[in-house]
Amino acid sequence: MKLAYFLSASLLLFPALAHAGNIERDGETQDEGKKVTKGFVTGGLETNTIYYINDSRTGAERPDGSLGSNNYLKVDFGYGMFEGGLQGEAYFPAIQGYPEQYKGFVLASKYARIRYKGFTASLGDFYDQFGSGLLFRAYEDRALGMNTAVEGIHLGYNWDDKIRVKGFIGRPKLYTSYSSVSRVAGADVSLDLMSLCGSDLFNLNLEGSFFNKHQALESDWMEGIVSPDINGVSARLGFEWQNLSLRGEYVIRTADASVFNGYNTDRSDAILVEGSYSIGGFGANLTFRKIRNAGFQSDYTQSGMFTCLNYIPSLTQQHTYSLASLNPYQAQSNGEIGGQADLYYFFPRHSVIGGAKGMRVHANFSTYYGPRAKKEYTEKYGQEIYFRDLTLDMERWWGRHIKTILLYTWQTYNNRIGVHPSMELRYSHTIVADVTCKINPKHSLRGEYQHLWTMQDQGNWCAGTIEYTISPGWSFSVSDMWNYGFTRTHYFNGGVSYSHGHTRVGLNFGRFREGYQCSGGVCRLIPAYTGANFTLTTSF
Question: Tens digits of per-residue pLDDT, 358-386?
Answer without folding.
Answer: 999 999 999 999 887 654 433 444 578 99
